[in-house]
What we know:
The structure is a single chain. This protein has eight helices and 21 strands. By secondary structure, the chain is an alpha+beta fold. The protein folds into two domains: 5-43 and 160-227 and 320-375, 3-Layer(bba) Sandwich (FAD/NAD(P)-binding domain), CATH 3.50.50.60; 92-152 and 234-311, D-Amino Acid Oxidase, subunit A, domain 2 (D-Amino Acid Oxidase, Chain A, domain 2). The strands form four sheets. Strands 5, 6, 7, 14, 15, 16, 17, 18 and 19 form a nine-stranded mixed β-sheet that branches. The chain has a six-stranded mixed β-sheet with strand order 9-2-1-13-21-20, covered by helices on one side. A three-stranded antiparallel β-sheet has the order 3-8-4, with no helix packed on it. Helix 1 (12-23) packs parallel to helix 5 and helix 2 (57-79) packs across helix 8. The radius of gyration is 21 Å and the shape is elongated.
Amino acid sequence: xxxxxxxxxxxxxxxxxxxxxxxxxxxxxxxxxxxxxxxxxxxxxxxxxxxxxxxxxxxxxxxxxxxxxxxxxxxxxxxxxxxxxxxxxxxxxxxxxxxxxxxxxxxxxxxxxxxxxxxxxxxxxxxxxxxxxxxxxxxxxxxxxxxxxxxxxxxxxxxxxxxxxxxxxxxxxxxxxxxxxxxxxxxxxxxxxxxxxxxxxxxxxxxxxxxxxxxxxxxxxxxxxxxxxxxxxxxxxxxxxxxxxxxxxxxxxxxxxxxxxxxxxxxxxxxxxxxxxxxxxxxxxxxxxxxxxxxxxxxxxxxxxxxxxxxxxxxxxxxxxxxxxxxxxxxxxxxxxxxxxxxxxxxxxxxxxxxxxxxxxxxxxxxxxxxxxxxx
Length: 376
């Protein structure tokens, strides 16, 4: 029997796309090769576009829409009895911990306050400066604090739990999942006709490429350049069973690292951004040193905590740092959702919703011009 849609890749983007398809009533097959190093398994899950250091206006606009969609998605998953996602509004603290961070902190402070003046958000009750003493009260392991801004609505989500919830809800609604790789996408008269997977042909008139860092090879088959490359990210989870971390905020400094607290006496510290890593999901001595050095520079109080887990993932990073979303040019019925880089958990569910709607004949609710496949 032919499928209404086929989704290639079972990470967060694939599962979210499949979930939105089956929720709309589409008979959907997800084909997942489960490559080691999938980005979903190691993502930090920070949801706070307001405090991002990104400069592209297209990213900011999309980021706000994506994070605003999270409560809607969570309501859908709750209605489907999908289980925990780890989502919580825990707050976020931007800190300058060393002299070289004074200038970028001042620039961010000006941008945030100027943005509030122009747009009226975030409000003074939601985003405000705090003293070094207050910053250390909010996150006790902090060391020297030269400046701090607190954002009340900073949130987090657990990528593994969210992926598990999406899968459970989608399967409950009829999603079929098979393990294996896609040998090729079948095209007839410039329209997709299905895929060949593990030697078998499966017919479908709609196909989504959601293979993360591995998506490029499928685009090459169709003569389309999906300009994404793997970027390795290493992250370390620290734990102190005697410490209560439930109310701690996320910590963001200015060396492109962060710390995310979780309610089980755990703090995730990360992450490296290793462009040019290739498909090599290894933990390395240099990467581990980088993560620990930066974490202890900002929060030396974590020095006696135990290392409970180390993770590594390969982010799909696009050539310009923006997502790659929408239809594949020249082949009717093939769509792609990838290229989110370090923002996969932040932007992914909303990206998947948009692509699923397009696959079902709808028009995107946002301008996807900055994210087109053929922009490169």
